[in-house]
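Budget justification, computational time. The allocation requested in the original proposal was used primarily to generate structure tokens for proteins on the priority list. As evidence of use, we reproduce two of the resulting records. The first is shown immediately below.
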Amino acid sequence: MNVSNSNSKKNNLMIFLVIIISLAVIAQTSLTVWYFFFKGNNDTNTTMKDNTIDDNYFGLGEKFTFDDLEITVGNRYSLIRLDNIYSSYNNKLVVRLPITIKNNKQGNYMLNIYDYKILGPLNTELDEVAGYFNESLFYADELEPDKSYLKYLYFLYDSNGNYTIQFNNGYEKKAILFNVENKGDIKSYEEIKKKEHRSITL
């Protein structure tokens, strides 16, 4: 009888220890997941609600100042297909987004292309393909004081959803939030240019 009670106590103790160990493993796993998705993402500065940018968020068509430059990213984007057989991006969908910049500095100046990055709906940085288009911001010259120009951002389309342009020069941070939706109305670059030319000459 005593042997049976002793075995029963040992079994209960083993069950209790297994439960404690299982709970400890679950708790550790939960903490790891929480750290990765919340703390980890904040460390990379890639989330749309990055606290380091504070409340300096803007939408398309809204004017803001960054590095003494007056910037407006237009609200009429286009989806075009890159046509260059020599490019690894050939036949990829590209977002074409207008950007107007005015120089408020005393001397000649321009936006540094390394002071901004574009994030897709998954908060991953998107490749720019500006080098394939003459009117892109990539080829922009310096602006004289109080002068402005209209250029274009060209970057790979990722998927439908929210996109972010983050501006950061080390001491000033701004961000633009906007939505891109592929409705199937894909144009070639030549078609877009012809349409714009007709609009100007009318």
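The second record produced under the same allocation is shown here.
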Amino acid sequence: MRWHTLWSFILLLLFSSATYLTYLVSRAGGLNPILINDVMQSDLSTLGPTAFLLDIFVFGLIIRWAVNRRRRKALETSKPPIFVPPMIALPPPEPSIDQSSTQRIWEEMAMLNEHENL
């Protein structure tokens, strides 16, 4: 079981407990712990083992729904195959510049530099 599944179960249990406590407070008419305890004891005595069976049934349905959803999601989100593009044929490199053209480029740059300094 993953930690977020356990965490969501704990939060669901906390939420249902808070809802029940809110119901008891509104039925008892206040936050007096003795009155709330008496109301809670009377609820447990009237419901008896039926309350525990109801809890098991409800949580069983929730767990079944979560497992079915996870299975369906796992089937839907299968990863597509990785696309590997074919190799691209590159042109051969240009032939190296000979010494004379290199000398001519340097002379042109020197001339441009002289004109800029004027």
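A brief technical remark on that second record: The two ends are 80 Å apart (CA to CA).
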